[in-house]
Amino acid sequence: MNRIDEAFKRLREEGQTALIPFLTVGDPDVTTTIDIIRKLEEAGADMIELGVPYSDPLADGPVIQRASGRALKHRISVADCIQVAEDARDAGVKLPFILFSYYNPILQLGLEHFFNLVVQKGISGLIIPDLPIEEDEEVRKMAEAANIHLIPLVAPTSNERVKRIASKARGFVYCVSSLGVTGVRSDFHSGIDEFLQTVRQATELPIAVGFGISSREQVERFAKQCDAVIVGSAIVRTIEEALPLLQDESRKEEGLQQIYTYVKQLKV
Ligand SMILES: O=P(O)(O)OC[C@@H](O)[C@@H](O)c1c[nH]c2ccccc12
Questions:
Q1: Is the backbone of residue 14 left (phi > 0), alpha (psi -120 to 50) or beta?
Q2: Ligand 1, closest atom to CA 231?
Q3: Which of 61, 174, 230, 247 could form a disulfide with 183 if both were Cys (CB 3.0 to 4.6 A apart)?
Q4: Which listed residue (46, 49, 80, 227) is catalytic?
């Protein structure tokens, strides 16, 4: 059984909602990324979305764009991001890892080599936001053969595509709460509740919601309808605010503690 399935089974038994943080690997450096992942696990995270920094993050708002820029200063590759899963596991992290990457960096690595790496390093899931279902046949077959869950995104505008996307989904279905790019929001798409109901009826798989979530109240609201809540920009912003501490060896633990405190209050 895939680690993501195991995590959702445990959470269902415990009546809990999964908290899935997203962070950009290599922001500010790979060693600190692993320290942050350990803190996220301590704070109650149930899975981690490892973001591959990319030069043209078209679906990302300014916070994640800045994080990608900082990480790309060290020329972090897809292979480096995948390696973080193994290194974090070696450091004692038990959480499932979902690799989040735009399609281009994966193509540059080559699908064969990419899938060998993700299997070897213990990645459990894959999110490729710019690979639509109409073009994902080859990747989906390779992912299924490797027992890696290719997790699709559905948006409030997906309408009749929701059923088709959900029918091919593995792991869980990622419901995007709003149109536009990632980034903290105070309100969501007007039809969000009906949209989440539509997705719930279209799949037996767990459903997750992401985009714009930053407060415990928002997590509690979505926990009523979803099995998982994904938080990216708000956590990446907390990392950004803690950078002066994280990059000073004598104050690194203080910076990590700031991230821990913010994330812990999100776990419901
Ligand atoms: O950052 P937010 O608003 O909390 O949304 C999650 C998001 O960061 C993460 O899942 C993600 C990062 N980049 C993306 C691009 C498309 C879809 C999703 C994403």
A1: alpha
A2: 4
A3: 61
A4: 49
For residue 229, which amino acid is it?
Answer: V
pLDDT in tens, 38-56: 999 999 999 999 999 999 9
138 is annotated as an active-site residue: no
Task: Name the closest-CA residue to atom 19, ligand 1.
Answer: 182
117 neighbors 97 (Cβ within 8 angstroms) = no
Domain range 3-151+228-264, CATH class: alpha beta
Instruction: Check if 232 has its Cβ closer than 6 Å to any atom of ligand 1.
Output: yes
pTM: 0.98
Query: Does residue 208 have its Cβ closer than 6 Å to ligand 1?
Result: no
Residue 159 has pLDDT above 90, yes or no: no
Residue 187: Cβ-neighbour burial (10 angstroms; 0-12, 13-18, 19+) = exposed
Provide the pLDDT confidence category of residue 247 given band limits of 50, 70 and 90: very high
